[in-house]
Amino acid sequence: MINLQTILNFPIINEGDIISDIIMDCIKYNKITLQNNDILCVASKIVSIAESRILSLESIIPSPLAYEIHKKVPRKDPRIIQQIINETGAADGSRVEVSDNYIGAWLPNGMRLTSAGIDKFSEDKIILLPINPDESAKNIGEKILNKLGINVAVIITDSDGRIEKRGATQIAIGIYGLDPLRTTSFNGKIIEETICDMFAASAGILMGQRGNNKPVVIISGYEFDFNQSSCINSALAKNKD
């Protein structure tokens, strides 16, 4: 049976904090026993804060393109729009999608995220995604292994919306230890499922939004072969054979 539980009494994360150490401290405080092949779903925002991925809006100068997009999506600050463009790595805006009230962005690794995964941190600051979510996940997993001797998979999750639906859900943007795809066959047909996104969305039910302060969910009971070389790129369409 698959079981999900949150880690309670999680502290507010500050820049420079070591996420793995805080997770282990909270697990000990809550008297939780980690097992090999448990899966930790970790909200990207606490990883971004710890990795100092906070940017002042005053440091961003909007381009004419950002102001043009702002005319179509007036609710979005032109400076944030500019940073969305910056995150795609294409200054000409060719990797930005604008439709009605939606701005989507194709990131250099091939993922498409609403607003390039950028969120408001405060009135004058924004928070960006971790530079390399796979590496962030690996770092957490390896530090827990080194200290506790337990192999845990780690999924870095982020909230993302769909253009045709209201609201958002959690998806996986980085992974360690768990293959992001589950492959099965039926009547000779190969079926691929993004199991990493299934777990991320399930964890999102318990995490809630940032104010709930439940940024880490432990998933137990799922049987899988631990894979230290797993990464989110293997689930992206651009890397499909």
TrEMBL record:
Species of provenance: Senegalia massiliensis
Domain of life of the organism encoding this protein: Bacteria
InterPro entries in alphabetical order: F420-0_gamma-glut_ligase-dom
Alphabetized UniProt keyword annotations: Ligase
GO MF: coenzyme F420-0:L-glutamate ligase activity
Keyword Ligase applies: yes
Keyword Mitochondrion: no
Protein name: Glutamate ligase
Domain Coenzyme F420:L-glutamate ligase-like: start-end pairs: 9-221
One Pfam family linked to the record: F420_ligase
